[in-house]
Amino acid sequence: xxxxxxxxxxxxxxxxxxxxxxxxxxxxxxxxxxxxxxxxxxxxxxxxxxxxxxxxxxxxxxxxxxxxxxxxxxxxxxxxxxxxxxxxxxxxxxxxxxxxxxxxxxxxxxxxxxxxxxxxxxxxxxxxxxxxxxxxxxxxxxxxxxxxxxxxxxxxxxxxxxxxxxxxxxxxxxxxxxxxxxxxxxxxxxxxxxxxxxxxxxxxxxxxxxxxxxxxxxxxxxxxxxxxxxxxxxxxxxxxxxxxxxxxxxxxxxxxxxxxxxxxxxxxxxxxxxxxxxxxxxxxxxxxxxxxxxxxxxxxxxxxxxxxxxxxxxxxxxxxxxxxxxxxxxxxxxxxxxxxxxxxxxxxx
Length: 349
Ligand code: EPU
Fold this sequence. Notes:
Blueprint: E1 2-8, E2 20-27, H1 30-39, E3 47-50, E4 56-57, E5 62-69, E6 74-77, H2 79-84, E7 94-100, H3 105-115, H4 130-136, E8 139-140, E9 143-144, E10 149-156, E11 162-166, E12 187-197, H5 209-215, H6 223-237, E13 246-249, E14 255-257, H7 258-267, E15 274-277, E16 280-282, H8 285-291, E17 298-299, E18 302-304, E19 311-314, H9 320-338, E20 347-348
Parallel strand pairs: 2-5, 3-5, 4-20
Antiparallel strand pairs: 1-2, 6-7, 7-12, 8-9, 10-11, 10-12, 13-19, 14-16, 15-16, 17-18, 18-19
This protein binds uridine-diphosphate-2(N-acetylglucosaminyl) butyric acid.
Uridine-diphosphate-2(N-acetylglucosaminyl) butyric acid (EPU) binds near residues 141, 249 and 253.
């Protein structure tokens, strides 16, 4: 267990902002998580439960306690283990992977691809850790974490009890879960059990996956080929945080009423969109930001990535506040041009 006062979070946020927290606590097992919650006092508030820091913008020092999981491990649960948990899962079609919340999420994807466990390929190289996948419902290329999450094991902060949630309990939707709302700061995630398929049914319909594969002469990709092409597409569009600080998509794509979408579609015939249901459409915020002229532009040392306008970048030495200023200016411009409010996906602290 780690318990450090006045700790620099520089290595814990991909925006590369140098901020400190008053106290940093890290657990490497369920027991340590229980020890941590038992020792918390009012002086530790507010809490910030941190994953890989790939979805976080620190605007200054954090006057509270940061809690981080360092629980490692990727373990195939056998039917007996699952049966011991009261389940009857002798299903030959699936594999259940129990992963420590501090494990790097992409290491799980790589492990799954290597072993022939399927369903996670499109989530390749999303930065961040296993715990955050269950909180944030991370997603890319038509797949979301919720599609492979089976159970989420947590320690309840108020009681120290181990509480295991089913996928359904977590009420997942686009980049949302109960962990971000009524369960916020109430649970520490310790393990996530993913349910993967032994059969490979590739999901190639999103964006340019299929055309990228065709360009390589691949019609029926293997899981590894699909992973490789996703990595290539992402690397071409998204900046490497080791080179230029960023937190991936800065904004969520807004979901709007059908009537609003139709009004805009008449005005902008080429506008990309994704149908959510009969009454709602999702409009890419990156497209709107580009239409506002922000792609590749900067405000102070904060900038908009030149290959993907949804990504804000630290051009070098930007403070969290400079990035917030850019965020607010963009939000105002998008609102003015399209009449739509866009909201950060990134956790601004
Ligand atoms: N677009 C533009 N200009 C831009 C960016 C996008 O016109 O600068 C257009 C694209 O041409 C496309 C549409 O907007 O028609 C969607 O773009 P893209 O497929 O690149 O995805 P996105 O909606 O911008 C989302 C996720 C990404 C994920 C991609 C691929 C969110 C907030 N972001 O971005 O996730 O990789 O889809 O599935 O939903 C992340 O969360 O950090 C992240 C990178």
